[in-house]
Amino acid sequence: MKHGITLALAIAALAAAAGARADDEDYMSTFYLGGGVGEYSLEIEDFDDVTTAIEEYDSDDTAWKAFGGWNLNQWFGLELAYVNLGSPEDEILPDTFAEVETEGFAPYLVGRLPLGIFEAFAKAGYYFHDTDARVTSPTGTTTASDSGEDFTWSTGLGLNLGRVNVRLEYEQFDFDDADDSNALWLTGSWRF
Questions:
Q1: What CA–CA distance (Å, rounded) separates 108 from 126?
Q2: DSSP strand E in 49-163: where?
Q3: Of 49, 84, 185, 190, which has the fewest beta carbons less than 10 angstroms from its beta carbon?
Q4: Whole-structure pTM value
Q5: What confidence category does residue 18 fall into, taking pLDDT thresholds of 50, 70 and 90?
Q6: DSSP assignment of 130-167
Q7: Comparing C-alpha atoms, which of 34, 135, 146 is closest to residue 90?
Q8: What is the DSSP string of 16-36?
């Protein structure tokens, strides 16, 4: 009798563990929603279309994004994000400031390497964006707007805590007129 109860408890524990493992695999193949905050940095060292008096634009600002995605399996997924890169501002001449605001949408292909509760990941996509630039000086303000699409890629590490995923991510934006344009993100998402 004692062995029968032990055997029944062992079978029940194995069944529960198998069910929990199936749940883990199920949420890896599902929809997720999330958001994040980061620091965006923009550097322009050579202004081709502007006077040579402007040496450099180098500034950063707080950025944020909201995203949703679909895990096709534990290795690959698709993601769509709204990305707002903030309004970095820099003094480009004495008492003259340039501010650049960029926001838009980015579809990504996502690749992941599961490492237990951790994951290494990489993303590649295109950033479809609107950019507004303002130059403010003692004589007034000049504005310009532009729209475009540019390649973007990112890489990082994630931590899976049940249905919650937390990521630290480095993202590079390949803007034509920028010498360096990147963001460091801390994001979180919920897998349904």
A1: 7
A2: 57-71, 76-84, 89-93, 96-115, 118-137, 140-161
A3: 49
A4: 0.79
A5: very low
A6: EEEEEEEETTEEEEEEEEEEEEEEEEEEEEEETTEEEE
A7: 135
A8: HHHHHHHHHHHHHTSEEEEEE
Confidence of residue 31 (pLDDT cuts 50, 70, 90): very high
- Residues 55 and 189: their CA atoms lie apart, in Å, by 41
How many Å separate Cα 125 from the centre of its chain? 11
Mean pLDDT score, 110-130: 96
What is the token pair recorded at 15? 């069944």
Please return the burial class of 176, using the count of CB atoms within 10 Å of its CB with bins 0-12, 13-18 and 19+: exposed
Rounded CA gap, 142 and 104, in Å? 22
Q: Which tokens belong to 70? A: 């679909």
Place of tokens 């926001």: 103
Domain ranges of the chain: 30-191
> For residues 97 and 138, what is the distance between their CA atoms, to the nearest angstrom?
10
Sign (positive or negative) of CA dihedral 176, 60, 50, 55: negative
What does the alpha-carbon distance between residue 32 and residue 190 come to, in Å, rounded to a whole number?
5
Count H helices and E strands in the chain, helices first: 1, 9
